[in-house]
Amino acid sequence: MKFGRIKKLMTAVVAATMLMSATLMVCAADTVLGNGSPTASGNDLSSSTGSSNSTNTTAGSSTVVSETPKLSYVEKATKAENARISVAGTEIKTSLSGVYAAETVRGAVVETPVADVKASLGLAEGQKPTIFIYDVDSKKSVNAMASINAAADAMGTDVVACLQIELGAKENGKWVKLSDGSVALKAGLPKSADTSLTYYVICVQEGGTIIVLEDLDTDPDTVTFAVNAGLGAYAIVAK
Fold first, then answer.
1. Which of 3, 26, 83, 166 is the most exposed place for a label (fewest CB within 10 A)?
2. What is the pLDDT of residues 62-71, one digit of tens each?
3. pLDDT (tens digit, 9 = 90+) per residue, 195-215?
4. d(CA 146, CA 108)
5. Which residues, in sequence order, are bridge partners of residue 109?
6. Alpha-helix residue ranges (DSSP H) falling in 29-134
7. Taking the model in full, what pTM does it have?
8. Which of 82, 94, 167, 75 shows the shortest CA–CA distance to 130?
9. At what angle do helices 3-17 and 142-155 cross, to 10 degrees?
10. Residue 30, Cα to own-chain centre: how many angstroms?
């Protein structure tokens, strides 16, 4: 399927899904990665209000839901800059530090050099680019998944995996929310994926905006796509 054809298919989808306004929530766990850092505390791109022990605070323009984090889960998935991560069975260095906790894909790394990331994101001195990657919880991310499924149906594709990704920065131990710039992320397709198919990525951003991305690499076992600054749901789909 050509990209121009995708954009035509997406016109009707965007018109419908923009009415859904996907509610995006960032989870904070100060004890793991510093004040204001998003971590896996049980919430994600959600249409729910969180659990009864949640407390809402404000960090920039985003809603932060703070709960007791799953420390062992987060610490195990926390990677330093230039850490080696297995992606579809191949060890690759990731240029950004952060939490690489998605289990529906066979590893993920940021391939954009850190100097280029800083330039793309417009970071100031002392700001360190950081990324957080989790699996989307379809039970909590009702609106985001509705947008993804509608787009996938319009394209005639099947959803293979769905990731919650936030790209931002750390400064003096605090989370800095960003809105401009992007990085290239390589993710390993699940073992069950049919490598003879063509893969795309459907991105749902805050406010319900939908973007369709093409696979930027030629490896049949991986998909590489642009991740924009801020928070979004990224669904890998096959046709």
1. 3
2. 333 333 445 5
3. 999 999 999 987 778 999 999
4. 25
5. 186
6. 30-33, 71-77, 114-121
7. 0.76
8. 167
9. 140
10. 20
